[in-house]
Write a structure and sequence with these properties.
Elements lengths: L7 E4 L1 H13 L5 E6 L4 H8 L3 E6 L8 H7 L4 E7 L11 H16 L5 E5 L22 E6 L12 E5 L9
Parallel strand pairs: 2-3, 2-4, 4-5, 5-6
Antiparallel strand pairs: 1-7, 6-7
The structure holds pyridoxal-5'-phosphate.
């Protein structure tokens, strides 16, 4: 499905994008799953909207541990924030993991609990040796990509980023 302007919002970097997404998604007390190790500011972003961060450890290879994520989900879980290529581990989440996560979240959607997958991808273009970064949009419809040009164009001071809502999601940016 093609993008339209209503699916994309320009933001002040990825930080602005994540904050805009969390402001839209969470009510006080809602939970956001964050995978450790994580970009430290995530906890402050969730806290900005009185959300609760639920930190879940990754596997020893720094890939998401789907069983641990499932165990961390509660009726208050509103979103999971992932970051691939990851800061700080450098790990790129492969297609199997992204689709496994999408399948897990789809199970909850089918049961009536929508858990948004927020994919923070400011390092998407900084990969080498033919490594591919799989698309969260192809794995799960209720997904939102947040990104910035701070890293790939080395322009952190310019604060240029955007958020993109999966065109297949039953939500829009307006
Ligand atoms: C994983 C991750 N997400 C978000 C950000 C914030 O990016 P920006 O400076 O574009 O707001 C950073 C910055 O270091 C980051 O490493």
């Amino acid at each position: 499905m093609p993008f339209t302007f209503k699916d994309i919002i320009m933001t002040c970097g990825a930080a602005g994008a994540i904050n805009a997404v969390l402001k839209a998604l969470i009510n006080p007390g809602d939970e956001v799953i964050i995978l450790a190790p994580y970009f430290v500011e995530y906890l402050f972003y969730v806290d900005n909207f009185q959300g609760q961060s639920k930190v879940v450890s990754t596997r020893p290879d720094f890939l998401p541990d789907l069983k641990a994520i499932q165990e961390a989900i509660t009726p208050r879980t509103k979103a999971i924030l992932i970051n691939s290529p990851n800061n700080p581990s450098g790990r790129v989440y492969d297609r199997t993991i992204i689709h496994g996560l999408g399948d897990l979240l789809s199970d909850y959607s089918r049961k009536g609990q929508v858990i948004y997958l927020v994919a923070d991808e400011p390092y998407r273009k900084i990969v080498y040796d033919g490594v591919q970064v799989p698309s969260a949009f192809q794995a799960y419809s209720e997904s939102i990509v947040v990104t910035s040009y701070s890293k790939d164009l080395s322009l952190p001071g310019e604060r240029i980023g955007f958020l993109a809502v999966n065109p297949q999601a039953p939500i829009g940016t307006n």
